[in-house]
Write a structure and sequence with these properties.
rod-shaped, four-stranded antiparallel β-sheet, two-stranded antiparallel sheet, about 40% helix, 3 helices
Length: about 180
Amino acid sequence: MSVFASQIFEAVDDVQAVVIHDAARRVVWASSGSDGLQSGKAHQFDLKHGSARERIGSLTVLTHPGSSGNAEFVSATVAPIVRCVERQIDINAELSSVRQVSDATRLGMKLLVELDKLDESADPEQSIRTLLRQSAGHFGATFSAALLPGFKIQVLHPQTLAGEGSPGRRGSGGEAPGF
């Protein structure tokens, strides 16, 4: 933001400070020297985000008392810089969402790699248990189940949730609790 504030200071005479507020009017950024401000003329610009152009805050340019710059000049000069600030906010938001998607994709790929390591020669029930345990861990679940009534398969993770202290097992023919 300091780059944009510098452009405003260069383009408009008598600027005391540039301050950015969020939608709740809290200061989220202020140029250096903004703590000892004198009363002056405040020129406020809405900051909008995204394709819906939702208002997310404001950028305020405070000029010194008795400044010769009129409101129309300040508005015409600062408006293009405000658009650049908005574009920067949009870019930062998009990069943030890409990072979040990348993290989710990375975790999904990690699960797939772990599942790919399942030994094809292992007992099928044990493979299903491993699949359920790893899937529950991946999704943060406390319970997972593979229920295939047509094959009389009922495998639960953790096994102690199978009811009456008996482990969930293949071919039990019974119902899982709550199903």
